[in-house]
Amino acid sequence: MPHPSRTAPLNAADPGFAAQLEALLPPGTISAPEPRHLEEPRGRWHGIGGVLARPRNTAEVATVVRACAAARVGIVPFGGGTGLVGGQVMEAGPAPLILSLERMAAVRDVFPAENVLVVEAGATLAEVQEAALAAGRMFPLTLASQGTARIGGNLATNAGGVNVLRYGNIRDLCLGVEAVLPDGSVLNGLKRLRKDNSGYDLRHLLIGSEGTLGVITAAALRMVPRPAGTGTAMLVVESPAAALELLALAEERLAGCVSAFELISRQGLLFLDEVMPEVRQPFADRPEWMVLIELGLPRGLDPQEALEGLFVAASEAGLARDGVIAQSAGQQAELWRLRESLPDANRKIGAISSHDISVPLSEIPGFIADAEAALAGIGAFRINCFGHVGDGNLHFNVFPMPGQSRADHDNQREAIKACVHDIAHGLGGSVSAEHGVGRLKTGDMARYGDPAKLAVLRSIKAAIDPLGIMNPGALLAERA
Description:
By secondary structure, the chain is of the alpha+beta class.
């Protein structure tokens, strides 16, 4: 049964409501949404919004949320707009208030001796990284969109990126959060503690909740010491299975020092040739499979020597047959530019269906083979499989053949998605590895989610947000 207070529909953020907010907040806080607040990177949805609120501090966020609760107006939090599953855009329903924290971007405090910095949710990931570097430390979360993505959105989606293998998701890098809850009350959870067993961990409840339980306004984040030396190499491997064996070999030889281990396929390189030829590639003949490895080593160890030793051992074991080891910071940047350009090339080609899946590491080769075979039964496609093989997260994206567009396959998109997701789920995997659920995958949540888990999620949502105003329609599908 739905919560009694959820039976009434939400109201639109109309001009009358905007006028109420303007009377409560400083001039310039309330305006009409801009086009950038109604778009998402892949261009699949166009959002609606009646009012844009850009508060300057937590008290103003609380004022906005209290007013929305009193008027039963939905709230769509907006970070950097880089999300790929529609969590930041609402297509239908009463026009919501769009809540942007872009003005709340301060670094509130830095504690180098504790390896902690406290930042507001509107700071971009790049700004957080710079603040850590200024303190002689490192914030290891790394994403291609880090110049635009904001830390509040990273926390709301439990962002991963290329360094999860060594440092974990952002969940593992967060010690505490400050948040405004759906009734406008403020959760003052910015403790800098590693140990605090005083009841339910509300920090972890809010991280990954995609704005459906409250608005994160600030966070205490964990920094790490900077490695004394870094090394980067791209090695050609015979297959995804060989890539996994190479990962095991690297971790045995360099325990705890492998920061990133990325799988790249030939199709990704061909896409770069097609739409981004300016990106330099290390191999004249495009290999079928390769891995990008990054090491971060302490003083006294030479990263290039470590990578050379790894390559020799991998060659002797039949795991790697060619490779390049970066000899300078510039060459390291070139190799990473290739990897980080793959999503941009994908967007320029235009995917029929994109998949952010994870499976147990040992299942990766079987997943790739099974998915490719199953898709061949649906039609002829190009597949760009790449991603964070070190943590089991693959971006398995399906594209039209040359001379066709994704629009030519609109009638096959759902079948393609179901095919890939069924295989990942059947192998004990997840159909939402790091991008979140948003509004794109609410059907997948219902299809693949454990019934007991879904029931608990709905109970939590009803208890914390009984009016249903927080990011309506995201994460959990609205019930009829």
